[in-house]
Amino acid sequence: MRSLPVRGPAARELGLPLPPGAMPLLRRGRPLKRWRYVGVYRPDLMLCVGEAHVGGLPQRWWAVALPDGTLLERTSARRIGLDLAPGRVLVARREPSIDLKLEESGGVEVVSGHGRGYIWTRKQAGVPVRGRVAAFGEVWEVDGPFAFIDDSAGYHARHTCWRWSAGLGRARSGEHVAWNLVEGVHDARDGSERTLWVDGEPQEVAPQPFAADLSRVGGMRFAPWCEREDHTNLLLFRSHYRQPFGAFAGELPGGLELESAHGVMEWHDVRW
């Protein structure tokens, strides 16, 4: 097996169990963690829908955010009317109601070592999405390249901490841009998951430092609308989590100036 990390199609040549195939629930004493996160980032509306399994135990969530700071969210171990099958996002509720279809692609895959195990991720940005969102007594028709998808799985170290940012927008020079930036996981200098998409073309970028308070990453400043936050202490499982939605300004990795961009920042410190 090649040494890790590995980025791109070569990840499929490692001989490791990877999604969408089955992965053992336990490897070298570490339980399998896997999740799927779908975000939609627009100037007038942002949302995320996700599902995670840690050692077989599920957690599901959704959130809808508006520029005025209004946030509607729920997190539960139950189904909560949620369907995240490939190519689909469905939250079948009266408030909110989310019904979206996604045109997914191969994305950017990375496999990295982590503690005694390995971890995998696939990121897709600027994914075409079409459908309808109803919340706060309003209805939004969604049709365009507004979605971001994070599929991840692996055998993370007992204590894992990361900062992460994803967003979509337009550069002052006219290009459609998107990014995925991280420190703490998949963050090697080469072979990382850090990616900048310019008019749909992905390229790996150098490490981008995060402010501890999530107010900036690299050359981008962040102005939050509102945020999801959770603090859980279940003895063997402890998690501290922040994910604000908001707007970005400034300079992307490589020097492109942002005209308008929206997305999320995240901090997660977990013992699992």
Q: What would your notes on this structure say?
A:
This protein has no helices and 21 strands. By secondary structure, the protein is mainly beta. The strands form three sheets. Strands 1, 4, 5, 6, 7, 8, 9, 10, 11, 12 and 13 form an eleven-stranded antiparallel β-sheet that branches. An eight-stranded antiparallel β-sheet has the order 17-16-15-14-21-20-19-18, with no helix packed on it. The mean pLDDT is 96.
Query: Total strand count, please?
Result: 21
Radius of gyration: 18 Å
Query: Which stretches are poorly predicted, pLDDT < 50 over at least 5 residues?
Result: none
End-to-end Cα distance: 27 Å
The backbone outline, from C-alpha atoms, is globular
Tally of helical segments: 0
Helix/strand-derived category reads: mainly beta
Instruction: Bin the helical content.
Output: under 10%
Topology of this structure?
Elements: E1 6-7, E2 26-27, E3 30-31, E4 33-41, E5 46-54, E6 57-65, E7 71-76, E8 82-83, E9 88-91, E10 97-102, E11 108-114, E12 117-135, E13 138-154, E14 159-171, E15 176-183, E16 195-198, E17 201-204, E18 216-217, E19 219-234, E20 237-251, E21 258-271
Antiparallel strand pairs: 1-11, 2-3, 4-5, 4-13, 5-6, 6-7, 8-9, 9-10, 10-12, 11-12, 12-13, 14-15, 14-21, 15-16, 16-17, 18-19, 19-20, 20-21
